[in-house]
Amino acid sequence: MVQAPSLDLVSKNNERIVLRFNNVPRQYVNAIRRIMISEVPTLAIDDVVMMENSSVMHDEAIAHRLGLIPLRTDLNRFVLPQDCDCNNSLGCSKCRVLLVLDSEATDKTKLVTSGELVSEDDMVRPVSSGIPIIILAPAQKLKFEAYARLGLGSTHAKWQPTTCSIVTDGTEQNQSILTVETTGALTAEETIDAAIQRLNSKVKGFTDAVTSLQVPGTT
User: Residue 116 belongs to what domain range?
Assistant: First the structure.
């Protein structure tokens, strides 16, 4: 007798979730895992306009560090730049967010952190205020504008929503355990929901494509 597939929640918090799949093909569970890594979009800083940088670090190195700061993301409010109807290379409020920083060390060294980034959107902010960006020596200054956009992990790792995404065997036959940990840009539940929606869309697209095929000689 074939047992019906089922799903159990083992544990969950904002940044980590563990799910137990029963009688679900391992390939399907692994597909969810792979899509979470490469096809669930998040916001990340993608362009930096440096206005003043008297630190010891090059502009490009600072821009690279900024891109790796996870930003809280709302997938219902933003679209990928290539899918936006603004047709503007600079973007609009639907496909990019401006963050600025203006920091200066006066009479002693200063650690500049992600908490000094000021976003034009209250929701889009670093997931932690304590991520180091650079240490400024006395009289050094750092001032820039940074633009965050949605992107995919398949393009660059800075857009990956997960820090851990693994599938392991359960304690019983035909059981798979999916463990997901996120950067905080999306909650673990949001990440899985987005991956499942993406997978279902792929399956539907494939089904529609097969249905539209015509057998040679039948027309």
Answer: 42-152
pTM of the full structure? 0.88
**122 within a domain of the structure (yes/no):** yes
How many Å apart are CA 104 and CA 143, to the nearest integer? 8
**Sign of the alpha-carbon dihedral angle for 131, 137, 138, 143:** negative
What is the distance between the alpha carbons of residues 150 and 94, in angstroms, rounded to a whole number?
10
Taking the C-alpha atoms of residue 58 and residue 11, their distance in angstroms, rounded to an integer, is 43
> Are 148 and 46 a contacting pair, CB within 8 Å?
yes
Digit-coded pLDDT (tens) for 39-51: 999 999 999 999 9
Q: Are 179 and 171 in contact (CB under 8 A)?
A: no
Please, what is the end-to-end C-alpha distance for the chain in angstroms?
A: 42
